Every structure is written in structure tokens, then in C-alpha cells.
């Protein structure tokens, strides 16, 4: 339970962040490490080890351990092996951030192959299921409790043309979150989703370049159009998402579970 | 009127550990809210009081508003000036915000609208006067205080963060809990929150709400029958316990902090997972 001053907090959070070689995942891992956590970064890209070394190099002496593991968390065996390795290297995982994800093909449903559609579901939804299952089994066996945070999206809350697979995958993550929250609450494991809005990430810039090409406008016009559509008049940053995730992992969210919380500058329902 | 208060009660951070805000291994920094000027309506009890304490512990200056002066020991313990005001009266609110700005050295850049009432009454017995009273305190009060604070901030070209207290009762109905007037007032608070957020976002003012579930405060009626109360917790609250006012305050202070810089127009349930069922 949370106290007035957080005095009940335990030392040494051990966190796993998937999809952490770049972008939001890197920002989340960097913030957790800067706050004193030990962090295992997992990514399909072998660049993840360099990312982990870069984060570790910026930490003060006595900081937690930061390690990078190259693995495809959308594959059952590979995900299990990566979680086992992270658990061994960190000690015992008590927080998981399911950030791994892809944007999908940006094609209309009538032009989308089943393989492309299914691949988005497999990566975005499948990886969250696999990593959560692996980590929850460890937490239950140790009776330590813990926190899982999934990355949803504003596009899992409202649809966008050309994003059927992505939207469906992120909406599914929100319901997976609720189901896992109910099942894991008796074990002291909280599960929540952060739903970012329009983020200043490579994934979003790629999408805007694609939109600019399709509409005969410039990339800069597309960036400006999106920023103006957001009440706070800007794109979100990795730091914005990391701030919300560190809160959800902490005892300051001890009575929050099963929720999908938008971090979108006010862009949804406005 | 400031009850115990003088400006020297509200300067300086509370004693506490150093460190960064965020993960639980370090706890909240005493400095996370340093330099922030906070106003809390309904600050004499429940979630309002817990938030006064938490804001103080994190280094904010705090002024509280309540209908009645707090007990002297409470005023001493929180070390926050209490202003007596009725949030349903525009004149009271204007005076209180002006006084608070003087005490704080500027317009409040953190506002918690926690003043509220909760009365059970089946719809067929509910009188227009009871309906009006609940709507006035819970919804009109949040509007009046929010408007006065936002006007002062915008006038001074300052950013800020407002947190309103809604309820899970705004999201779900419960035949066993005859509180239509309360539920409607809190649903109104969510709509008010979203509209405040989009109208004031260009001024750098963020507005969010929390939706507490069953929280152990003086307002709670669930545990009046302990057996039925525990049965409710076991079947309707995945975490199978009441929440504490301090747990809700922790979410409120997060929403007011820079860690929530990109959050606005959201309503966050703090309910042990009850709305996930």
C-alpha cells in the first residue's frame, strides 16, 4: 500500500523493457535506470546491447545494472529464453514494460494481405502476452508481486484509415491488460496500459512521410498538422511516456490496476 | 480568513529524503513539487487532506479551503493555512482564490478540487433540494474554483495543473448504491474536466480527473456493514481491499507533477481494478 511519503518502498527495482533498442523503449529504460533501477533491455535488433551500454555509461557510480538482450519477443521460445536470461542477470524481475511493437503496413483493409495483418497482431499483441506470461509465472512462484505496463495507443481507442491491424492490436492490448489485471490481482501484480498519442518517434515520422507522399504535401506540413490537432500543441516525447510509466510501476500507483491511461496531450475525446 | 496561517507556514520544503521522483526504490523526492503553489478545496478531510499532506511532503506550498475551520491540531500538523469558503458561492470562491494567491506569492499553479458530498437516497425519494445541493457542491464548486484559478493563471501568463475528483460512480451504475445525484455530479465533473482541458491547453494549463473507487475516508459508507462490505470487496474489487486516501493523493500529485506533462483531459480510475471487471 502506498504511504504518505512512500516510506514503504523497497530498494532496487528490477525492470525489463521490450523493444528498447531505440525510441520510446530506450527512453523508458533510460529513465528507469536514472531513477536507480536495474534494467534489462530486450530488442529484436542487435543494436540493443549498444543502447544498454550507452545508458549505463551515463549513470553515476553505484547505479543499477543495465543489460541488453537481443531476442524476438514475438516468438514463444525466444521470448521465454530472453525473460529467463533477464531474470538471471537482474536477480528477480519485479516490473515489465511491454513496449515492443510495429506500426504495420499502412494499407487499406481491401489492399492488405492476411499475412501482413496477422504479423502486426503477432508482434504487438503476441509479444505482450508472451512476455507477461513468462514474467507473471516468475512473480507468482516467488510471491513477490510486481507491475506490468503495456504500451497501447490512442489508435487502440479510436480508428484511423490504413491502420486496421495496428488499431486492432492496440485495442486488444487494452483488453488483455484488463484480463491479466483480474487474474493477477490476487498475486499482488498490477497490470496497466499507457496509450500514447502522437509521439515524436521514428515510427510516427515514417508514417507522416508516407502520408505526405500519398497526399502530395510535405513532411513538415504533416508534422505541423498533427501538432495543431493536439490540444497541448505538440508531439509527445519519450520523456513524457517514461514519466507515466515510472509512476505506474511505483507504489504511487498501488491502487491502480486494469486501466488504460492516455498520454496524448488531450487528443482523445477532444 | 487564514485560520492558523501566515506565509511563514508555507515556505520551505518539508523534511524528507532527497532523490528523484519515480520508481519505488527511491521514493518521491521532497523536491518534486518544490516551488509549486497549491490550492486544495475540501482540504480538511479525506482525499483532500491526504493531498495537502503529500503536497507538503514533496515541497509545495499549500493553502486549503474548507467549509469549516479544521481542528487546531489538524491545522498545526498540516502546517497549511486553511481558508473558510463555500465553493458553491462565486463571491466566496473569488475571495478565497485572491487570498490564496497572496499567501502563496502568486496564483495557485496546482489546484485540487476535492470539496464534495455523498448522500445515499433512492431516486423515488430524492428531493429537488438534495439534487441541487449535491450538484452545487460537487459540480458547480469544481467549475467555480477551476474558473477562478485558471483566470488568475491566464492573467499572469503562467502554466498550471488542475485535478478534479470524479468517481467510479461516474462510470458504472450500482443498484445497491442509490446515489443518482452523486453519480450525475461526478459524470459532470469528467465532462467539465475534458472541456476545461481543451479550452485551457493553449494556456499551458493541464486538467485531469481521478475516479476513486472504494476509498477509506469519512465519506465511505460501504463498510458500515463490515460483512457485506468485505463481501463487496471480495467480489467487486480485484485487489480485494479498500484504497487509502494516501493512494489517491499519490495519483493526484503525479497528475500535477511534470511527470504528467503530456497528460491532459484524462480521468484515471484509482479503484483497485473494479472498473476492469
Can you offer a commentary on this structure?
The complex is a heterodimer of chains A (270) and B (277). With 270 residues, chain A is α/β, with parallel strands linked by helices. Chain A folds into 2 domains: 210 residues, NAD(P)-binding Rossmann-like Domain (Rossmann fold, 3-Layer(aba) Sandwich), CATH 3.40.50.720; 34 residues, no CATH class. Chain A has 8 helices and 7 strands. In chain A, strands 3-2-1-4-5-6-7 form a 7-stranded parallel β-sheet, sandwiched between helices. The longest helix of chain A has 29 residues. Chain A is globular, with a radius of gyration of 18 Å. Chain A starts with 13 loop residues before the first strand and ends in a 7-residue tail after the last strand. The N terminus of chain A is likely disordered. Chain B is of the alpha/beta class and 277 residues long. Chain B has one domain: NAD(P)-binding Rossmann-like Domain (Rossmann fold, 3-Layer(aba) Sandwich), CATH 3.40.50. Chain B is 38% helix and 14% strand. Chain B is built from 7 helices and 9 strands. A 7-stranded parallel β-sheet of chain B has the order 3-2-1-4-5-6-9, with helices on both faces. The longest helix of chain B has 28 residues. The chains are: A alpha/beta (270), B alpha/beta (277). At the A-B interface, helix 1, helix 5, helix 8 and strand 7 of A face helix 1, helix 5, strand 8, helix 7 and strand 9 of B.
Instruction: Identify the overall geometry of chain A.
Output: globular
Give the tally of structural domains of chain B. Answer: 1
Low-pLDDT stretches of chain A are 1-10
Q: What is the average per-residue confidence, as pLDDT of chain B, rounded to a whole number? A: 90
The top level CATH class name of chain B: Alpha Beta
Radius of gyration of chain B from CA coordinates: 18 Å
Oligomer: heterodimer
Given this structure, which CATH class of the largest domain in chain A is correct?
A: Alpha Beta
Helix % of chain A is 40-55%
How many strands, which pairing sense, and closed or not: the largest β-sheet of chain A? 7 strands, parallel
Supply the helix-strand structural class of chain B: alpha/beta
CATH superfamily of chain B: NAD(P)-binding Rossmann-like Domain
CATH architectural type of the largest domain in chain A: 3-Layer(aba) Sandwich
Number of DSSP strand runs of chain B: 9
Which range best describes the helical content of chain B: under 10%, 10-25%, 25-40%, 40-55%, 55-70% or over 70%? 25-40%
Q: What is the name of the CATH topology of chain B?
A: Rossmann fold
Identify the most extensive interface between protein chains. Answer: A-B, 60 and 54 residues
